[in-house]
Amino acid sequence: MIVASPKSITELKKIIADHKKVLFVGCGTCVTVCLAGGEREVGIASYAMRMARKLDRSPIEIRQVTIERQCENEFIKDLAGPAAEVEAIVSFGCGAGVQAIAERFPAIPVYAGLNTQFLGVLEEQAIWTEKCLGCGDCMLAQFGGICPVTRCAKRLLNGPCGGSLESRCEVDSDRPCAWQLIYSRLKSIGQLDRLEEIIPPKDWSHAWYCGARKVVRKEHQVK
Ligand code: SF4
Ligand code: SF4
Asked: Model confidence over 115-150: pLDDT tens digits?
C-alpha cells in the first residue's frame, strides 16, 4: 500500500490561512488502511482545524467527504457538487490523489493534507515499513523476494557491504541488514547458488530518474 502521514494542524492551518470555506476530502483506500487519510482521520482533522481557527478568531467552515479512491476519475467526479460550494480543497489522499483532484478542478486551489511516504506494509500494529521504490524493473526473483534496492542503505545488488554488525545495517542499526535477510531467505528456500552470480549494473531507465512514467496496457483499452 501507499503509506502516508498526516501533516500537522499547524502546517495545514498555514496552508489554508486565506480560506474560509474548505472541503476536506478523504480517500477510502491505502491512506485509510494506514490510518492517515480515511473518513475518521478527516473527521479528526476537520474538528482540530475548526477549533484552531476559532481560537485564532478566524472561523472556518469545513465540509467533509471521503471517496473510494482519489486516484480515479470515476470516484473524483462525485466531488463536483461539494467542490462547487467551497474556496479550496484539502486532499487527504496520497500525492497522486491530490494531483488527480487538482486536474479535475482546475479553478479551485487543491492542497495536500498528508505527507506521502512510501510503498510499504503494515509490519505490526501502527508500524509501517518501506518495501518497494517502484523501480520499474523488479529483481525480487534474484534476491529471494527481499528488495536490496529499497532495503539496503547502499542499494547494493552484489552485497553485503561488509559493515553489518549482528545482522543490523551499519548505516542504521535500527534496521536489519537487507543482505543478511537475503542470505537467510535464499538459504531457507534452497537458492543460495544465486549469490554466486554477479549482478550487472541495474538498468535504471525504467525508474523515476527520467521523469514521470506512464503505463499503457493496450489489451485493456476500449476504443
Ligand atoms: S526491485 Fe524494484 S520493483 Fe522490485 S521491489 Fe525492489 S524497488 Fe520494487
Ligand atoms: S549493512 Fe547490509 S543493509 Fe546496510 S548497507 Fe551494508 S549490506 Fe546494505
From this structure: 999 999 999 999 999 999 999 999 999 999 999 999
| Minimum-distance ligand 1 atom for the alpha carbon of 136 | 3
Task: Please tell me if the CB atom of residue 195 comes closer than 6 angstroms to any atom of ligand 1.
Answer: no
Within 13 Å of residue 88, how many CA atoms lie on the same side as its CB?
17
- Cβ atoms within 10 A of the Cβ of 209, count? 8
Q: Are 185 and 145 in contact (CB under 8 A)?
A: yes
Is the same domain home to 64 and 171?
A: no
Supply the range of the domain harboring residue 145: 137-209
The answer to whether the CB of 132 is under 6 A from ligand 1 is: yes
- pLDDT tops 80 at residue 32: yes
Q: Is the pTM of this model over 0.70?
A: yes
* 187 within some domain: yes
How wide is the angle at C-alpha 32 spanned by C-alphas 67 and 127, nearest 5°? Answer: 165
pLDDT reading at 24 higher than 80: yes
Residue 130 belongs to some domain of the structure: no
Q: Which of 144, 202, 157, 154 is nearest to 175 (CA)?
A: 154
- With a 6 Å cutoff on the Cβ, whether 121 touches ligand 1 is no
In a domain, 124, yes or no: no
Domains in the chain: how many in total? Answer: 2
Please tell me the distance between residue 138's alpha carbon and the centre of ligand 1 in angstroms.
5
N-term to C-term CA, the chain: 31
Which ligand 2 atom minimizes the distance to the CA of 154? Answer: 5
pLDDT at 57 > cutoff 90? yes
In this structure, is residue 220 part of a structural domain? no
